[in-house]
Structure formats: C-alpha cells, structure tokens
Amino acid sequence: MEPVNIGICGLGTVGGGTFDVLNRNAKEITRRAGREIRVSHIGSRSPKTDYDLQQVCVLADVFDVATAPEVDIVVELIGGCDVALDLILTAIEQGKHVVTANKALIAEHGNEIFAAAQEKGVMVAFEAAVAGGIPIIKTIREGLTANKIDWLAGIINGTGNFILTEMREKGRPFIDVLAEAQELGYAEADPTFDVEGIDAAHKLTILASIAFGIPLQFEKVYTEGISHISAQDILFAEELGYRIKHLGIAKRVPEGIELRVHPTLVPERLLLANVNGVMNAIMVHGDAVGPTLYYGAGAGGEATASAVVADIVDVVRTLTIDSDDRVPHLAFKSDCLSDVRIMPIESVVTSYYLRMEVLDQPGVMANVARILSELDISIEAIIQKEPQIKGSEVAIILLTRNVEESKMNEAIAEIESLDSTLGDIVKIRAESLIN
After folding, report:
1. How far is it, in rounded angstroms, from Cα 60 to Cα 65?
2. Counting Cβ atoms within 10 Å, is residue 298 exposed (0-12), middle (13-18) or buried (19+)?
3. Which residue among the candidates 96, 103, 203, 251 is catalytic per the annotation?
4. CATH number at residue 120
5. Residue 341 falls within a domain, yes or no?
6. Measured between alpha carbons, how far is residue 307 from residues 30, 111, 257 in Å?
7. Within 13 Å and on the Cβ side, how many CA atoms surround 354?
8. pLDDT tens-place string over residues 265-301
9. 51-55, 178-182, 198-202: which range is least confident on average?
C-alpha cells in the first residue's frame, strides 16, 4: 500500500514537534495507522537547519503545499486566521484532508470550513486546537457518545492558571506574575488573548459545539478575564474553602445553553481546584457516566504535536471509508445540529463571592443585608475584617447562595450607591461542580 504523504505548513514549535514525532515514532505510528505516513512537503519561509529535511520538498509558499498533487493531508500550523483560512479552503478545494491546531480559526470560521469539507467529502481534524495533548475532543465526540452531556468546565488556558497559581502560593500581585509569565514564554508580549479569556473562549466554543450539537458560536460566549483578581481575593476565597480558577463553562439548562469564561470560585476539595501551574484540566458531566476529569499539558511543542499526529492517524484510518460514514466534525451530523438558544449572562444562576470596602460605622452590614433580603438573595457565609484604624474602612466578604445574575447586579448597584460603600464591589461567580 502506498504511503500517505503529509504536507506540514509552518515549522515553528508545534510544526517542528510534529515533524519530530512523526519521524521518531515512524514505526509505531505505521503499525497503528496500517500505512506508512511520510512528511513529503513542508511549507516554511525559514525552515530550521537542525531538522533533517533532505527527503522533504521544502516550499516557501504554503499554498504550493496545499496544491501539490503528491500531498494527501495538509497540516496547518501557521496560526492566525486570514492566511490560514485561505490555506485550508484551498486544500479542501483541492480535495485534500486537513489537520489543524488553530482554535481561533475553528471557533470563528469552523462552520464555513466544515461545510466546504462536507461538500468535497474530505475530513478536517482539530484535536490539537483544544487543551494541547489532552484528547478531549475525541473523548467527547466518541468516548462519551452514549451520554447526554449536562455540562463541562475546564481550565483551558495554561497562562491564566499559572498566574493564579503563583498569586495563591506566593501572594504576589497580578502584574508581577504576568511579567514573569512573559519572561518564561508562557504569555505573549500582548497577553490579552490569555488573561482576558479570549483564548479560552475559542476553545470553549469548540467544546460546547461538540458536547451539545450546536453550531460554533464564538460571538455569543460571555468572556471575562483575570486582571481584576487580587491576591486578597485569593486569600479570602481560601478562607471560605474555595480556590479561584479561570474556567470555561458550558452548561445545558432548561432555557438553553450557557457559554461563559470567567474567574470562578471552585471548592478546594475538587481535583479541578488543585490543578496548578500551566496544566489544563476539563471536567465533563454526562447523564450516564457522571463526572469525569481529563488532565494534562495544554500547550508545548510535543504535547500539541501528540494531538496533531493522532489526528493524522485518524484521517489515514478513514481514507477508504465513505464520507457519510465518518465521525462528523462536530459529533452530530450537520443536518442534526440544534439551534437551541445561547443564554445571556444576565440569566445565569449561580452563587457569588462579593468583596466590598465600606466605612467602619454602625448599620453598614444591616443595610447590605436589607438590600440582599429585599431581592431574595440569601447569604451563605460572611467574613468581616477588623479595620486597621478604628473608624476607617473595612473589608466585608460575602458568599451568596444561588441567584440569577440580573438580580445580583441589581443588588450590587444598590449597595454601591450607599454612602458607606467605597469604590466598586468585586464580584466573582462560584460553582459547586458536583451534579
């Protein structure tokens, strides 16, 4: 049987890792795939000299890889959306299968890409787009296919998790840890995608689509970052028995689907609360299997390459299968995707951590309790710190029971309008993640 020829576009960290893994484990991969998989073409403007490329056709223009007649599978690892989208659509038009690690591209343009792929009868595989080396897409799409997925919640950005871990373990301020993350290469010079939750929102969009059988809808994900989280919030959360994690949460509720990325108080007894550093972890709750947890490296050259190569092997295994019999891109047949409503954040029901700075004077707590009571918001726990100077300001920390976000926002606005309240109230959502 003829070898399957691979064209890798982009020879950066992940592209290089993919080339290394395919060559280093060539015999084992051939045994698993049933056919030899060979890197025949590489598209790179400046290929690294430390790779043995003597048997490879190296092209400066990635589109020449996509149109090369010898290439069976195009592996897109250049990143970004503009050129990558054109590259993938060109490869599909040429009748080639595609493997990509590009979460932004799939989240924002996946519906268009999959429609084109279906028309041409080719596959687009994207396991490496979410959580690096953790095979979470295959798990939800195939391993949990018997289940109705109730919810999933994950630490799906290692940079944010590293920052929150350092803040908790060493009491350091956000800005200092962010600078260290940039020095270590965990965060980009412009860290917006990581710390403001955009990267996680891309990944959540993909996971939710596969879990619930809905079209990709990145624009409807509520996104909130971690730049406003302080070291004292992390300490107060621990006093209440919680850890603060930056989570992507997708949940099926009677009214529709919740899609949200935000800092979240998680009970410290849960395994998810104890995932530290740059590691990723995703909890998935199915109606038959219950809660399951998937943990591992969410980034890195060879960790991500592991998922890329797994996708390549999957594509090779199904080359002779009729396109209608393959596992659908988004787990459900395209004509079976649901138009279920994506819920606005104001309709979310959860519990809340509130931190407020108030004047140290009689009646303040009574006024806060009255406002909450009038809106039928119950208090689960209270921490009130002694003022450093009698009569100055004091911190009050509340943990509420479940309440709709619109009501919580109304209560916060009323409390902030009190003469005794100083500045804005810090609000962080809390999730039990137990049912």
Report:
1. 9
2. buried
3. 203
4. 3.40.50.720
5. no
6. 16, 22, 28
7. 32
8. 999 999 999 999 999 999 999 999 999 999 998 888 8
9. 51-55
